[in-house]
Specification:
mainly alpha; 115 residues; 6 helices
């Protein structure tokens, strides 16, 4: 592995599951996985891979394996790991006012001794 990759790996270590492009090219690839996408998603992946100057397959491998590694590590310590978008969506859902069902209202009345 080159010195630049070592520096980059150290710099993004906190993200977890990082693969340098040299590791991906040297990775033995002997199992196939087919994923169906729409054209817009495929173009998006191609553009992102082009930014890293790697093939779309290598890009998908690096991103998906990295994400799977992070999710499994979080599951092993019983921690929920959200992306920034998922964090916002979760917080928004928690911030919405609660609308109690009829059964919940009845249970509340029973617990307060009103029934």
């Amino acid at each position: 592995m080159c010195r630049t990759c070592n520096v980059l790996r150290f710099a993004v270590h906190f993200i977890g599951g990082y693969f340098c492009r040299y590791e991906i090219k040297d990775m033995q690839k002997n199992v196939s996985l087919m994923v169906r996408l729409n054209q817009e998603s495929k173009d998006l992946l191609a553009a992102a891979a082009d930014l890293r100057r790697i093939s779309v397959s290598d890009y998908v491998r690096s991103v998906v394996i990295g994400q799977a590694t992070r999710e499994l590590a979080a599951a092993n310590v019983q921690t929920i790991a959200f992306s920034p978008e998922e964090q916002l969506e979760f917080w928004t859902a928690l911030s919405r006012p609660v609308k109690l069902t009829k059964a919940q209202k009845e249970l509340g009345a029973i617990m307060r001794g009103e029934v």
